Amino acid sequence: MEMDKKLVFCLLLILGLATSGCWDYQEINDLAIVLAAGVDSHREGGVQLLVEIAKPEQMAGNGGGGQGSSGKPIEILESVGSTIHQAQRNLHWRSSRDVYWAHKQVLIIGEDLARQGIAPLLDWFERDHQARHSIPLLVTNGPVRNVFQAQPELESTLAEEIIMLIEHMEKQSQGYGTMLKDFLHCLSSQVQHPVTGRLEVIQKEEPHGGSLAGAGIGGGQGAGGGMEPVPPRALRLAGLAVFKGDRLVGWLDERETRGFRWIIGEVKGALVDVTVPGEPQNKVTLEIARADSVIIPQVKGEQLSFTVRVKTQAAIGQYEGTLALSPGLFSTLEAACSAVIRQEMEDSLERVQREYRVDIFGFGKELRRRYPNVWRKWEGKWDSQFPLLPIEVVVESKITNSGLVTSRVPVAQK
């Protein structure tokens, strides 16, 4: 409810500032405000466009509820065109309201289109005067239609649900969300290939007495009808979409994604489970409080290699062991933590270097920054040579906080 009020207030404020005193003034109730947009290839050729539309007067009146009624505040609309520009025009023509793009919160691309190449799609978003670049870009591992058939679990709109998923996964460092502007910048770079988050659609158990119509197009509403009901679906942000240029080449799972984030220095929080070597009953969960990373190019004549150094500070979040938390045990746990982190980094490097053969980490960028003259020798062959370069991983972990107790919570024998 509170999120709904904030959304309505922002919509009213933005539109009020945008239209007040202008010759092309539009009533807010005459607009179909795009919250989320999804683009995919169409089975008969061309481009499929789906949008989540907000109707402000319904949101203000119903507090975001009532999606199953004829006066629901959220609609899912769909159109098809030979290009994204044509699909967008067709969406305008079939809507009874002016479709307003300036408040779009997230852009989702289907896997099939992403594998074909998304440069034409991004070209339109760069040129359109209403399109925002400061929004997350995500790729779903399947048809984008499935995303718009999902039901938000905790938020009132799919757009809000996805934004909150991104914020939550940032704290765990197992997902990723790239802003459209950053993706575009990386796409134009000569030294680094782009990545972004993977959005999954998962099946969920239908609540007792629940309805499948709430997802808009899932129950035949908002898409012209005639569709079979689908099982309830929810969204999950997990893993990384890896691109070579503008084409999707593969995925990283959650562990590999966290390995990627260790390397680029973007771990903002994480839990690392370790055990004392030789004593598997002594389990510890470490909570990473800080992580710093540096990529170091090493040039020796014609030979090039890299070292990635990561330093972490951790606190003991949970201890299931019987040993006293002594300095010696701390050293053992720190070494175990470093081993887990190092393995995640090496797994990520192995997958990306050997299978996808692209530099998504910024090794080339760091070489160019530190040794511009050396970079000029490697620039033209970077994509072919990067998969062959040796990369050493060094991790140093330090436990700085053991909590308020120094041993396991005692349990009396009875």
List the helices and strands and how they pair.
Layout: H1 2-19, E1 31-41, E2 47-54, H2 56-62, E3 74-81, H3 84-94, E4 98-100, E5 106-110, H4 111-116, H5 119-127, E6 136-140, H6 144-148, H7 158-172, E7 178-179, H8 180-187, E8 195-203, E9 233-244, E10 247-252, H9 254-264, E11 270-276, E12 279-300, E13 303-319, H10 327-356, H11 363-370, H12 372-378, H13 382-385, E14 391-401
Parallel strand pairs: 1-4, 1-5, 5-6, 6-8, 13-14
Antiparallel strand pairs: 1-2, 2-3, 6-7, 8-9, 9-10, 11-12, 12-13
Helix pairs in contact: 9-10, 11-12
Notes on the structure:
The protein is α/β, with parallel strands linked by helices. The protein is globular. It has two domains: 2-252, no CATH class; 255-401, 2-Layer Sandwich (GMP Synthetase, Chain A, domain 3), CATH 3.30.300.210. Strands 1, 2, 3, 4, 5, 6, 7, 8, 9 and 10 form a ten-stranded mixed sheet that branches. Strands 11-12-13-14 form a four-stranded mixed sheet, sandwiched between helices. The protein has helices spanning 2-19, 56-62, 84-94, 111-116, 119-127, 144-148, 158-172, 180-187, 254-264, 327-356, 363-370, 372-378, 382-385; strands at residues 31-41, 47-54, 74-81, 98-100, 106-110, 136-140, 178-179, 195-203, 233-244, 247-252, 270-276, 279-300, 303-319, 391-401. The model is unreliable at 17-25, 63-70 and 208-227 (pLDDT under 50). Helix 11 (363-370) crosses helix 12 (372-378).
